[in-house]
Amino acid sequence: MEQRGTTTVTLACYVQQHASFFDRNKDGIVYPWETYQGLRALGFGILNSFFTGIGINILLTYATQPSWIPSLLLSIHIKNIHKGKHGSDTESFDTEGRFEPSKFDAIFSKYALTYGNALTWQEIRTMLKGNANVFDPIGRIAALMEWKLLFSIAKDENGLLTREIVRGVFDGSLFEKIERKNKAAKGVVLR
After folding, report:
1. Name one GO molecular function term (predicted).
2. Mean pLDDT over each residue of the chain, to the nearest integer
3. Which of 25, 55, 107, 138 is deepest in the core (most CB within 10 A)?
């Protein structure tokens, strides 16, 4: 268990929290249009959100289905999101979707050599090469795209991804912060 704000969070639900941001109607299922809406809320453009959203749902739909029958609507089931884990990643989530703090810390101890608690884009590239599994082109591409998307929306004014920012993407809290910031910038009243 970990204390996050006023809520106690079990490490097992981190991957579900991460994915739940995209479940816009909170029914436990993420459809491509919800992924699109979530990406738009994060500040991505229309085309980027469309193609990235379709790609994410295509890659995760079958693995997360509650049965062997694929979904023609390309739905992602949050309760099974841990089954969509790809190779060549940081292993900060285990195969059951539990957060692994030691693996998360290893990202920074091994690769954040310039600033210690923040990653440059070059250090992220080095990390991706270090985590790449042999004969895993899909996992390598997925990891690259995830980190590129994260870097594009969350790097600080110095072009760095801090430990706090990266932790926020793993537990899903960063997505909510970015959406609130984007809504405030557009003058949308937040409740």
Report:
1. calcium ion binding
2. 90
3. 107
